[in-house]
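Late entry, written up from scratch paper. The run itself happened at the end of the previous shift, but nothing got recorded in the book at the time, so transcribing now.
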Amino acid sequence: MLLLCYSKCGTCKKAKKWLDDHGISYEDREIKTENPTVEELKCWHEKSGLPLKRFFNTSGLRYKDMKLKEKLPTMSEDEQYQLLASDGMLVKRPLVITGQTVLVGFKESQWEETLL
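Output as recorded:
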């Protein structure tokens, strides 16, 4: 299992603690220094079944500074993938990738249902 997090993110810290408390092993990847690639994002997006917008960190400063709320609706999926791959801080976190599924964000009930 791959876990993409930002080390200074409080939600990511909670997610790691939850995984550790449940004895779930994972490979930890720092999203700020090791951005997801366009290919990874496309694969994870398809596997997740979620709208691509859910992969954006809509509460992040970069998202707001770039006025992406207004811009995303007019951008193609390819443009959105390129944007997400250009800066890990634009990506919603934590991201959990397993062989079967992709979880975006930390919702304890969803994680329990999917990972336990």
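The beta strands are 2-5, 27-30, 95-97, 102-104.
(Scratch paper discarded after transcription.)
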